Amino acid sequence: MPSLPVVAIVGRPNVGKSTLFNRLIGERVAIVEDVPGTTRDRVYGTAEWRGREFTVVDTGGLELEPGSEIEERVQDQARVAIEEADVILFVVDAAAGIAPLDHEVADRLRRSPKPVLLVVNKADNPRREHEGAEFYALGFDPTLTVSAQHGRNTGDLADEIVDRLPPAAPSVQADHELSEEELAELSETDMGPPMVAIVGRPNTGKSTFVNRVLGADRMIVASTPGTTRDPIDTEIVLDGEPMVLIDTAGIRRRGAIDRGIERYSVLRSLKAIDRADVAIVMTDGTEGYTAQDAHVVGYVLEAGKGIVLVINKWDAVEKDEHTADRWLKGLRRDAPYLAWADIVFASALTGQRVDRILREARTVAEERYRRVPTGELNRVVMDAVRAHPPSHVRNRLPKIFYATQVAVGPPTFVVFANDPSLIHFSYKRYLENRIREAYGFLGTPIKLIFRERESEDDARRASKPRRRSAKDR
Hints:
The protein is of the alpha/beta class. Helices cover about 35% and strands about 20% of the residues.
């Protein structure tokens, strides 16, 4: 699954970055207040415009604080925005005019190889829009005047963003617009060495695990949460086959992310997940499966990646012969979305089951690239339909005709029906479960996409000449 391009919103405090973020993604996610510094965590959202999807990142404001080094602060935040984003939105305030900090940020961004759009926000009326012309002095082309609050010119801004995104890779993300022939022609993705991201909340033993695998202290390991900031790629050989491990910074829930560099570390971790085949999610067995663990798992599932859930620090857990069973039952109850996940109880510190974790990750990566022959798939799907037909909806009977696999990584199936809107989500889950029963797909999400197609009987009736009534004559 190709990662979405990233659009970062940067600028000093109180220029309307969060309002613009909410406008672009079409929902109120970021907290918006007329107080500088309201955004104290990194907020991510997915925007769609002209058929292109992209990740939008709302950031905390660049500001001059007592005792801080202004150049260091600007350099740090602007540098990471440049490195991680595909397009940068530099937001300024038309009502307040040019501020010294705007010049500091502009100096750094002008040297960026990435596209930078200068967004003059709060241009709520023609007079403000005219006053915004002074920002042309910052030297960016194009410079766009908008009102994020009222939606003024934000469509033009979205056009400019999409025009500057990297070329889109072939994908089934928007396959509702593709013909059957185009779906059939989607090329098969070849699996290279598995890319395995080691992720989790802070201080769950991610770097300890990597050190144990490498047999040397190649990573910094400390008891202080948040030691690792940048993802680090390390190639290993497992049973004679290559594999790439990506150690990442801990991902906290949004409200717990500190200001400063840590927020950019989270962005890097999310991009590491995007380019991985499988994520090994490390949890702390002494603390149980927490809400923050669920938050990290959510990122992995949203990205469509394979998952190996590791209950780490198992050596420190007081247990009897039933402890693991109780853990599994609790997970199945509290996290039913992990019913198909691979779960390993391990200790990175002692090396318990570390090799097994890696082998399981490789197996999950292979499952992500499994292809099912169309004939076999249709037998499974039609047997499931005969055993449990879909229910009538508004006196209409949903009909499922056939299914085909159109992509791998993750495995993606298109199911053709007379009216996909009639098929309840629980029935879609039923079909997914039957496919998993037949083919496994251990540890990997699968996608079922329902497309409309007429039955042969419907097509014949539609093409048959209608008898004229007496009224027609």
